Amino acid sequence: MDQVLSGKCALVTGGGRGIGRSIAIALARAGADVAVAARTQSQLDAVAGEIRALGRRAFAVAIDLTRRDHIEERVNYAAGQLGGLDILVNNAGGSIGAGAQIDPVTHDPQTFEDCLFFNLTQVFYVTRTALPYMIRKNWGRILNTGSGSANRGGAILAYTAAKHGLIGYTRSLAYAVARHNINVNVINPGWTNTAMVDWERLAKAMNTTVEGARQFAYSQSIQRRVVEPEELGPMAVLLCSDLGSAVTGQVVYVDGGFKV
């Protein structure tokens, strides 16, 4: 898949670390120029530096995706720096709240809505701003990062609801933009070795040791392991290039066989 994205411009939200960083670097290795967007400037600067070292243009775009009024300006800024947008990776997301705030019976209403916004609604606002750039070129790729909780229950209520909703949003959007030669898909990780997986907190919640928590995670995939974020990069490149031109409206799993 060498240089299959040559001449393309990509925006990756949540691009400062973990899966977002790995996808951004994979897109750059495939020839794309990349803007990485997140809240932490130091992380963004580090990833942008890695991309420039590969010989591609890179831009660090500070953005607060919990602020509706911040999104449109920042996405347009990224597109302006790149000279357009061909690829959008909606990777940002995560759980919001802890303890009593997210109890399924006494769930704090504002925390519930904040979690829905961060994992679903902001994807709509980012995508709505990015789409006109793709429509003008009659070509585009939108890749949304799902979750092991996107097709099943068991995780935090609001987070699970949002990730289920992301799949419905993806499929509906794929219908709406297909006539513009724009593909829209979800890439679904399972247990992945990123900062989002806090083994000590998980062990405490499960009343076990860190090793016990790790073994629990391993037991949930048929490969008996946790996936590394770099393993999602090649699939992202495939789905964001013409190699994946026949794939749209789909949920693609890169999860080691999580709960198969």
Give a brief rundown of this model:
Helices cover 45% and strands 15% of the residues.
Question: What do these coordinates show?
Answer:
- This protein has 260 residues and is of the alpha/beta class.
- The protein folds into two domains: 9-190 and 230-254, Rossmann fold (3-Layer(aba) Sandwich), CATH 3.40.50; 195-226, no CATH class.
- A seven-stranded parallel β-sheet has the order 3-2-1-4-5-6-7, sandwiched between helices.
- The chain has eight helices and seven strands.
- Helix 6 packs across helix 7.
- The two termini are 28 Å apart.
- It is globular and about 50 Å long.
- It has helices spanning 18-29, 41-53, 68-82, 109-137, 157-177, 199-206, 210-219, 233-240, and strands at 9-13, 33-38, 58-62, 87-90, 140-145, 182-189, 251-254.
- The longest helix has 29 residues, at 109-137.
- Helices cover 45% and strands 15% of the residues.
Keywords:
260 residues; alpha/beta; Rossmann fold; 2 domains; seven-stranded parallel sheet; 8 helices; 15% strand
